[in-house]
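[Automated response] Your request has been received and processed.

Submitted sequence:
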Amino acid sequence: MTSQQQFPDGFLWGGATAANQIEGASNEGGKGPNIADVLPGGKIRLKILTEPGFDFKMDTEKYRYPNHEAIDFYHRYKEDIALFAEMGFKAFRLSIAWSRIFPNGDETEPNQEGIDFYHRVFDELIKHNIEPVVTISHYEMPLHLVTEYGGWRNRKVIKFFERYVTAIFTAYKDKVKYWMTFNEINSALVMPIMSLGFSRLEDEKANEQAVFQGFHHQFVASSIATKIGHELIPDSKIGCMIIYTPVYPYDCHPNNVLDALEKEQLFNYFCADVHVRGEYPSFIHRYFKKHDINVEMEPGDLELIKKYPVDYLALSYYMSRTETADYSGMEKSSGNIITGVKNPHLKASDWGWEIDPVGLRISLKNLYDRYRIPLFVVENGLGAFDKVEKDGTIQDDYRIDYLREHIIAIREAIADGVEVMGYTSWGCIDLVSASTGEYSKRYGYIYVDKHDDGSGTMERKKKASFYWYKKVIETNGQEL
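Generated structure:
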């Protein structure tokens, strides 16, 4: 398929990962344990993420912990980056593991071995003319900050985060221009454990109070990071990052339309409004009053948030969500931590995530109309079972079809006038799934011979999508 609509010059084509899902080497180089290290692999993980009562302890006799080894990017980064370069990546989104830099999170001086590791990774990327796009906190919170301080509920964590960002901005100021503060910050509305650092509380009212208090501390921390970043790296671009799932009303009944709007405001726009507009949105005050939520703030917090908004808005997009005010007798869907009712017009992936490329165009139009700042699609992809054929090939045409339709949606949004900086598809190399801790849920252009039972050689193989994406980048999206 050939398109006459050009992607802009300098469009950042590439792929995205997270340290805890690719690096492995969980106890090497002075790294301390983080939240992902204590999450077991398998379906039990989703239960832990969304239900109360997790104690942040490991049971190695009962469970596997795939994040400890992941795909061993820590030792194989040169090989992997060479493959990204072969595809023609312009950008690679990765995260820094906070506990590699500050193993406990509350030290006063950074761990030099951790600093040196990311220097080597960034140098390798720069050697191949690949722009690093760095997430500062991507579900990588040091475990000590969870068990000793209660995660982001505790205002003290702001100071620890400030120390962390100062260390990495100082270390990498000549190597990294694009930064994001928190990965999928709004995910905490559903699962606070990975981004806010505490297990969902039994009492729903107490849980909401804790979540919004944690959010406020993160908003302050994000503004501090933006301030420091602009001071230490004058040409830097500091962004925030959200999960975006457009919310459709199941039908045109006004109650369902209003219900969908209110759910979209809370999930999709609350965190982004504070980051981008620099203030709490009007709709949230009624929500706080209705739910008896009282967010403690210190003098100067709101002024700081207002003074240091983000430069761009990054988003993950995997699916849309269909909602109704009354779930009685309705078939529920499953998806990326968010459930709604089943959309009869959409097909779903092997993991039940509804596939909706048009929803990505809707998302980009909605966000740009609301904020008028550059957007960056930093996650999008298809988790699927891949099969290695007898001749060693992996024919993942289903993934190509998925990605093609979503890239077309971005192209059409750009034609609509939306400013999109780039596209880094999720899991450009197979990795450990965040939500289920599985290897078998594969996203990559590059197959990694590693399996849920722990077996595998870690050998890398190029899938059919590898060659397809190479052509997409080569032609700046002209040949899809």
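Summary generated for your ticket: The chain has one domain: 12-474. The mean pLDDT is 95.
If you did not submit this request, please reply to this message.
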